[in-house]
Design brief:
alpha+beta, 4-stranded antiparallel sheet, 16 strands, 24% strand
């Protein structure tokens, strides 16, 4: 019996020594091991490359950071801009594709779409100056046009809904632009509302106003410029009970 126990102890010791030896030979995995990826988005030959902007764990590393790609409809920007610090593909497309480059007077055009987008210029005093263009088919170039006018812009819609909306956009003939934006919360004693219009770019809006960006529920509507393409101030809206 003692002989058997002794043999068993020897086997266990041997196995322990083997495991200890193996752990000394193999390097310990670093849980923080990763490759830092990122860089500028570029456009070449009409193709946008956006490097993956995120750390990749060593165990998932394949030898490169990888990138997203997108074909611009009208190629890279005609003004030579080829790089952007965009972190998302949507921003890279807006920065680098010709179809999203802010158009100017004398740009070549065949259709009205070639003179879009018309982006307002941000001034140092916190205001904006809108650009208004149309395509002159005879000249084949974008030329200046009269500013967009919404005669009842930001006037009351004269809406009195039974239930208070959180945020709403209503198509209505009560506004000359065809749209009423209105909003309220539980503490409001009235409903903020304003006549406006839908837009694709700032050129669709009256002078000094902009087409709101995607970071608001009122995206794609003309609104006063308040220092940001996504900022609104309900205190400036008419408030009806």
């Amino acid at each position: 019996m003692l002989r058997v126990l002794g043999a068993l102890v020897c086997v266990l010791v041997a196995l322990g020594c083997a495991d200890e030896s193996q752990s000394q030979d193999e390097p310990l995995e670093d849980p923080n091991c990763h490759y830092d990826c990122g860089g500028v988005a570029t456009c070449e030959g009409g193709l946008i490359n956006l490097p993956r902007a995120a750390p990749i764990a060593c165990e998932a590393w394949t030898g490169s950071c990888g990138s997203g790609q997108f074909d611009c409809e009208s190629g890279c920007r005609a003004d030579g801009v080829r790089e952007s610090f965009a972190q998302t593909m949507d921003v890279a497309i807006a920065d680098l594709c010709e179809e999203h480059r802010p158009k100017q007077v004398d740009d070549l055009c065949a259709t009205e779409a070639d003179c879009q987008p018309q982006v307002a210029v941000r001034n140092d005093d916190g205001t904006v100056s809108n650009t208004y263009l149309e395509c002159d088919a005879t000249l084949g170039r974008c030329v200046a046009r009269a500013p967009t006018v919404i005669k009842d812009f930001f006037a009351t819609c004269d809406l009195h809904p039974i239930r208070k909306p959180r945020h709403s956009v209503l198509e209505t003939s009560l506004c000359s632009g065809g749209v009423c934006a209105y909003s309220a919360n539980d503490t409001d004693a009235c409903i903020h509302q304003a006549c406006t219009a839908r837009c694709d770019s700032d050129g669709d809006c009256p002078q000094g106003t902009i087409c709101l960006g995607d970071a608001t529920v009122f995206r794609g509507l003309c609104m006063p410029y308040l220092g940001s393409p996504d900022r609104i101030d309900l205190s400036e809206w008419t408030c009806l009970p």
